[in-house]
Design a protein that fits this description.
By secondary structure, the chain is of the alpha/beta class. It has 13 helices and 16 strands. The protein has a 7-stranded mixed β-sheet with strand order 5-4-3-6-7-10-9, with helices on both faces. Strands 13-12-11-14-15-16 form a 6-stranded mixed β-sheet. A hairpin with a 5-residue loop joins strand 9 and strand 10. Helix 5 packs parallel to helix 6. The longest helix has 27 residues. The chain is globular and about 65 Å long. The chain starts with 21 loop residues before the first strand and ends with a strand. The structure holds thymidine-5'-phosphate (TMP). Thymidine-5'-phosphate binds next to helix 11 and helix 13.
């Protein structure tokens, strides 16, 4: 596989490849990729992802702050909130506008610059135990450490949890949300697996990781974002009561076989089956002379395209709203990335919805913008052709 976000100009050769292979630990129950490329290759000054581009996600982060962060700090004098992987400051903006002390940490300088411009205090660093020590020294301990869709990106979980343990105030909480393993298995959304997602977490695995660091998972709340995510609530061991919904969630995972290897072997079979169905559909449409394009050059699409062997001979272009991606070609599959406006002017017969996790937002945006004959293709949960009903 190439790197999921290695969008590049058409004349630039990209030979970097790594083996994308998943493993499951029957001991600690972590599901993860076996090899991860060097982190500096993935998170750098040209990281092409800006959280604030999605209106739905921006609203989601607003409610994350209102429902999960603010209630915990409302009674505190001068609380301090840290966000790991703060990107362009979309989440911390809802903290800073309440005049709450905060610090965002992100390794990609371009997104950090954007955050700083909007008044978000940000540090351009990878979060680690040593960064946690420096932050603690300078700002004191954190009442809340938050992270969204980022903990699963960090290979050294050991160091990360050591850092959290170091930086978290005695009664502080660490809240993070990530794509959820049981949702991925149920939806066969294998495109959640790519270089940046080292882990796909479950309640069982996070409980085990916390245990190793004298921390405790005390609550969890499922989320509909990213095709099924889980919000984890962690505290110092023994500081909070374990919630009923967490206990219920753990039993559901056990009854769905998340502890056993067979479940993952079945997942592999389900992935192969879906791959066959998607290729078959696209090749058939192509044989009928239909034009096919993609909607949204997501990180996930790199896995779909390269795993299924779909390239520019089958798909004419992928449209996307991110200025940094437009004019580039897709990693490995070399499909041109164009603007949404270009797609409106050059409408295909079929549009493959690569951002299936943003379906509602995209269908709303595209309602009445496409000619009636355009059909959509999705592959999560199943491979199907559909019409935008708004
Ligand atoms: P992600 O699934 O890796 O978060 O990437 C989302 C991509 O989808 C990003 O490149 C922006 C693109 N996108 C659109 O082009 N239009 C949209 O309406 C939405 C929600 C996303």
């Amino acid at each position: 596989m190439p790197l999921a976000n290695s969008f590049r100009p058409v004349n630039e050769v990209d030979t970097y490849r790594f083996e994308l292979k998943t493993v499951f630990c029957t001991n600690c129950k972590l599901f993860q990729i076996a090899n991860q490329p060097e982190k500096e290759l993935m998170f750098h000054a040209k990281y092409p992802f800006f959280t604030g581009l999605s209106k739905n996600m921006t609203n989601h982060f607003k409610s994350f702050v209102q429902n999960s962060i603010l209630p915990h700090i409302v009674s505190k004098r001068d609380p301090f909130v840290v966000e790991i992987g703060s990107n362009d400051g979309t989440l911390l903006k809802f903290i800073s506008e309440n005049s709450i002390r905060h610090l965002g940490i992100d390794p990609s300088s371009n997104v950090v610059e954007r955050a700083k411009k909007t008044g978000i205090t940000s540090l351009n660093e990878f979060f680690s135990f040593s960064t946690a020590q420096v932050i603690k020294e300078k700002h004191g301990k954190a009442d809340v450490i938050a992270a969204t869709n980022v903990i699963c990106h960090l290979p050294d979980l050991e160091d990360l949890f050591k850092g959290v343990k170091e930086l978290l105030a005695d009664d502080g909480i660490f809240i993070f949300e990530e794509p959820y393993l049981l949702s991925m298995l149920n939806l066969v959304s294998f495109d959640q697996i790519y270089d940046e997602h080292v882990y796909i977490f479950s309640l069982l695995s996070i409980s085990n990781v916390c245990e190793l660091h004298d921390l405790e998972l005390y609550d969890a709340e499922s989320q509909s974002t990213h095709g099924g995510s889980m919000r984890y609530y962690v505290c110092h061991k023994g500081k909070q009561q374990q919630s009923n919904r967490l206990q219920k969630g753990l039993s559901i995972e056990i009854s769905n076989g998340l502890e056993t290897l067979d479940t993952y072997i079945q997942f592999e079979k389900n992935c192969e089956k879906k791959k066959g169905q998607l290729i078959h559909l696209i090749q058939n449409l192509k044989k009928q002379g239909k034009s096919i394009s993609g909607y949204a050059a997501t990180s996930k699409s790199t896995t779909v395209l390269n795993y299924c062997g779909i390239d520019s001979s089958l798909i004419d272009y992928i449209c996307d709203s991110t200025p940094e991606k437009i004019g580039m070609v897709s990693p490995g599959s070399n499909i041109p990335i164009v603007s949404i406006e270009y797609m409106h002017l050059n409408q295909p017969d079929y549009l493959i919805l690569f951002a299936w996790n943003h379906e509602v937002e995209i269908m709303r945006n595209e309602k009445n913008k496409l000619i009636e004959s355009v059909r959509w293709i999705k592959f999560v949960p199943g491979v199907e052709i559909f019409i935008n009903n708004g």
